[in-house]
Amino acid sequence: MKIIRPQTDACMLLQQPFKTVVEQAAQNEETLAKIEVDGQQTVRCIAPQVEIKHSIFTGCRLAESDFCKAYFADVTFKNCDFSGTNFTDATFKRVEFIGCKLIGADFSGSFLEDMWWEQCNASYMNFSQCRVRNIGFDSCGLQNGFFNDMRMKECAFNTCSLSNAQFMHTPCKGIDFTTSDISGVQFTAEDLRGGIFTALQACDLALLLGIHIK
Prior knowledge:
The protein is mainly beta. The protein has one domain: E3 ubiquitin-protein ligase SopA (Pectate Lyase C-like, 3 Solenoid), CATH 2.160.20. It has two helices and 13 strands. Strands 1, 2, 3, 5, 7, 8, 9, 10 and 11 form a nine-stranded parallel sheet that branches. It has a two-stranded parallel ribbon with strand order 4-6. Strands 12-13 form a two-stranded parallel sheet. The longest helix is centred in the first third of the chain and has 11 residues.
């Protein structure tokens, strides 16, 4: 699987408060493009349906914000805090989250394409009913996450913690879980077909199929 990474050249450092700028852009239906947001600390940005392109965010705190139905393309987030943020029904294309905190963030109903997540603390994150194409998670904490009713085409988990997550009614065909912790994960039995698991993982999952191994 080849993930297309963001194109974020020639960004200009944003001098104004991001909260003010993004909320005005959402209200005026304007696009924010080629901005660099560095170290801004704020909460509860209310910017539904905002459009952000070709931009970089580093060390920002944007927790408990509302970006529902927003559009993000060619955006990099590094060491940012989006805990409790609402991204429902949003669109993400060529976006990466590196070293970010996303505890309880809600992406339900969103469309995700060519996304990369690396070393993120994202427990309790909600991906239910997302449509996914070409996304990868590397060394992420995804404990107690919600991956229900998803439609995934090319999704990779590399050395992630998925313990106690839910994958109910999400087809696992072609998804490789062998390097990740899936202890306590809830799967729908019929959707396990085609998933890739270690022998030890398969023994645990056999219980879902009513199989007892002695």
